[in-house]
Amino acid sequence: MSTSAGGPSLDKPRRGPESTPTPASGAAGTAAARSTGGASTTTPPTGDGRRSGAWARLTGGGGVRNLGLVGVLLLLVLVGAITSPDQFLSTSNLVVILTQASVIGVVTVGMTFVIIGGGIDLSVGAIVALATVWATTLATQSYGLGGILFCAIAVGLGCGLLNGVLVAYGRMVPFIATLAMMASARGLSLQISGGLTQVVQVDSVLSLGYRESRILGIPPLVIIWVAVIVLGWLVLNRTTYGRRLFALGGNPEAARLAGIDVRRQRLTLYLVSGLCCGIASFMLIVLTGSGQNTNGNLYELDAIAAVIIGGTLLTGGRGTLIGSVLGVLVFTTISNLFALNNLQSAVQDIASGAIIVIAVLIQRQSGGQSRAG
Amino acid sequence: MSLSDRPTPDLPSLDATPSRPARAAGRRGFLLGSAAIGAGALLAGCTSNEVGTDDAAAPAPAAEGSTSATGAPVTIGFAGPQADHGWLNAINEQARAEAERYPDVTLEVVEGTNDAAAQSGQIETLINRGVDVIVILPADGKAMTQSGLAAMQAGIPVVNLDRIFDTPRAYRLWIGGDNYGMGVSAGHFIGERLRDRPEARVVELAGIDNLELTQQRSQGFADALAEYPNIELVARQAAEFTVQSGQEKMAQLLQAVPQIDAVWNHDDDQGVGAEQAIRQAGRDEFIMVGGAGSRHVMDQIKADNTVIKATVLYPVTMAASAIACARLIAQSRALGDLRETEVPTSITLHSAVVTKENVDRYLPIAFT
């Protein structure tokens, strides 16, 4: 995110104005606004400026960058409305899209934290697999809903803790540490399940996915996702912890010199990601009514792609949660459109590749405009 | 975080006035610590999947008679798949169980793998050990052809299970399921059920699209449905043989087609997810036919209280039959009631439709 809208100024000195297009201030002010670190003459006084910046981030995502993504999403909705108007625009389809986005959506929230903090987590899919398998063994199921929920979250947190310790205190490269976790978590889930699909027999868990459990027509899974987004957004943008995260991702050395406990901060990144994986695992158990070691297949790629498309810098230090959420929605909507139009796998793969490129190009286009303006 | 970290209010600590934050942190640490220990204890007890597992070694309806008489001792090498799917897992179990039925058979099992390179190494090992016959379910039929040829050239007969080699020279016997026939069976079952329904709409939830077997199943299904002019295959989506993909694709299919008369799902494992999607959408206006024949689905067919009314078998017993045939080949004996003096070179299994009426016959060979 831009430094003017809540991000720390620690990463500022190392980057020239050219390398930091600040979308929020770019949208609100001018290049002059950027050079003065956001306290521009055209925007309201600093206090209000922060609020309006945050507001812009909440509504339009991170300004222009997310506006591009909203445009892509609207374009997809338009395509859906033209190609299959009756099915696509129905509320039940909206519910399906949101429900399907919710599981990977929660994982993506955690991934956004990790990437903003300058890390990467390749193990999310494997953690989801392990947590779903562990939480659906017959022994765990005998504890009912509480047991399953607790177990899913505990396994997620445990894996996240291990990742975090390896990266922060073991000084391992995140790519390698989480790659190792990816391999062993998948292996352990295969070991525990023996390759079998573990069908959940606990009705209180299954019924969370059924129509009867909807609150005002909204499935509980979607509510959980929204709650995670809101909580994540608040932590990222409204707490010292969040500011430190941007600082850490932008320039770890500067963050350390500024008195931030870099190692502990790094550890928490993977804990957050692990926690999100644990929550997502529980949601996946509700959704599929089972645990399987193939669960969460390629989640790491889906989550990273959504985060990057959402405008977060892969190298860290800058990013928006709302952008990531939009990224997830774009992917899910594409998949939904394909199914509604009965397109087959080969066409789907070609088209989704093309759409990703188009989405990024549209984004870059809008980003470029803000830089020029 | 240990017990000693806990500040004890009653006893004066060394630091006469412990600062409030430190104290709070200490208590929090203690709470976290005990929670972690509790979590660990509970978690450790949660990996167990043992609850009186019914024996998978169900008595296979093998041909009794002269073939079951004990013959010369035979060593069979078995190279199976990595058990990451219920059906594949059952294949390995069936092979082991069948071998145990014969006092004259020694089974040498190598680690199951999905990696063709690793598997060809295993076949080489089996050849060097000088087993009498090799039973192999290849990680990839085409890629493993050379291994089959090598074994045959070394004078070791190869029983090729299911995924067929490129050339008949690479095996002595091929035994496997009929994917095209599976589609045909499913198509005919649905066709007969919907015979009197005008403009019937059928939906297909396929397996992994870039597998040849999926294409064959879909082809058989389409060909069979073509015999019924009143039925139209309105939508088809490919899942990935996983519950997660099954749920996702089924949810979308249900959105795409508001009124469905029948669904064919290629695979009962992904069907677990599909079933949830159907329940979540609150739909029940159609009948559903599964594929492969899992225990879970057969139980439902028997209970007859869901949309699942049938499943098309892809028999896991082929692994047991392969072991039985391998034994007979090694002992140069014939196959049961057949009049030939040798075991045939090719056996294609029938894809039976399991319905409420006949489910009891098939329950013993369902995979979990």
UniProtKB/TrEMBL annotation, chain A:
Cellular component GO terms held in the UniProt record: plasma membrane
Claim: Oxidoreductase is one of the keywords in the record: no
Compartments where located: Cell membrane
Extent of Low complexity compositional bias: 19-47
GO molecular function, a single term: transmembrane transporter activity
Principal localisation: membrane
CDD domains per the UniProt record, alphabetical: TM_PBP1_transp_AraH_like (cd06579)
Topological category with respect to the lipid bilayer: Multi-pass membrane protein
Region (Disordered), start-end ranges: 1-54
Transmembrane parts of this sequence: 64-82, 94-115, 122-139, 145-168, 175-196, 216-236, 267-286
Family annotation (InterPro entries): ABC_transp_permease
Swiss-Prot/TrEMBL keywords: Cell membrane, Membrane, Transmembrane, Transmembrane helix
KW ATP-binding (keyword) present: no
Name of this chain's protein: Ribose transport system permease protein
Lineage start: Bacteria, Bacillati, Actinomycetota, Actinomycetes, Kitasatosporales
Automatic annotation (TrEMBL), chain B:
InterPro entries given in the database record: Peripla_BP_I, SBP_2_dom, TAT_signal
GO (cellular component) term, any one: cell envelope
Keywords annotated in UniProt: Signal
Keyword Signal listed: yes
Magnesium keyword on record: no
Chief location of this protein within or outside the cell: other
Region of interest (Disordered), ranges: 1-23
Molecular function (Gene Ontology), one example: carbohydrate binding
Pfam families referenced in this protein's UniProt entry, alphabetically: Peripla_BP_4 (PF13407)
Domain Periplasmic binding protein: residue ranges: 76-330
Entry superkingdom: Bacteria
Locations listed in the record: Cell envelope
PANTHER family, A to Z: D-ALLOSE-BINDING PERIPLASMIC PROTEIN-RELATED
Family membership: Belongs to the bacterial solute-binding protein 2 family.
Name of this protein: Ribose transport system substrate-binding protein
Organism whose genome encodes this protein: Allostreptomyces psammosilenae
